[in-house]
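Before any further analysis, we paired sequence with structure tokens, yielding the entry below:
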Amino acid sequence: MISQRKIGIIGLGHVGAHVANSLLLQGIADELYLCALNDQKVISEAQDLHDSLSFCPYNTQIINVGDRYEDLAQCNIIINAAGNVAAVAESRDGELTASTDSARTFVDRILDAGFDGIIINVSNPNDVVCTAIWHLTGYDPKKIIGTGCGLDTARLRSEISKVTGVSPKSIGAYMIGEHGFTQVAAWGIAAIAGKPIHDLAKEDPERYDFDTAEVEDRARKGGYVTYAGKGCTEYAIANCTARLCAAILHNEHAVISVSTLMCGQYGEEGVYASLPCVIGADGVEQVLAPKLTLAEEHGFHRSCDHIRDNISKLPWW
């Protein structure tokens, strides 16, 4: 018997709906479970996704579970995309209370129903929500993954691509720390074809000697360029989430910058933050702590401190 790849999505706003669409278009899920509090929203999204199956590479069973969170227990992966996008107009911290309160309503119900798969959190502030889910449930932290700086890494590579002309797929550069304004670009390990970008800048300054601080700032604020005209971000984060699902379901051992529990990396513990991680069927297999410059390491600590500061604002913590 062929094992079915089952993915559940909680929250069907801009992000959740686009995640569902990306999963269908890439043929990643065999069964897709849609979960949201708004009954008509789930019905409408399920209808639209059903109507698109003729244009997708494979058939997918689309299941409306409404707010029956327990029905998600059979999934291999559950994606938490519940949130309030209007609250992030100024900062991703804007959803702090709403997103964590939302998670409190369903995580125990799902785990009590027997779920033992991977939780991918998309909701913001991403690192805080991940830490809260781990704190509330005691679930294996390797199986709680935040999209975190996976999206920010893509934005960094995109900005480097714009100034060098090299495909973003061929650029080895990572954002680390918080999925927010305190994130840090790890320039010390940024490379193309294994060659450090700072060495390339000496050899071919016309192409590679760009302002790294400016590029990093554009990557850090890229989401708000998108938000300014759309009132949301959706395509890139949806594809980032789908990429994580594929890495898990295919046991790829892919290296992706994601939010994971810090267990001594650079002296940080007890909080979720992003570092490059090896992702496979069991979630985070290994956390890679690359050599950082002194300034980058200080920036990483500031980032973790900001996450802790947000956690301290939760009234129930």
In short: The radius of gyration is 19 Å. The chain has a mean pLDDT of 95. DSSP finds eleven helices and 14 strands in the chain. The longest strand covers residues 269-280.
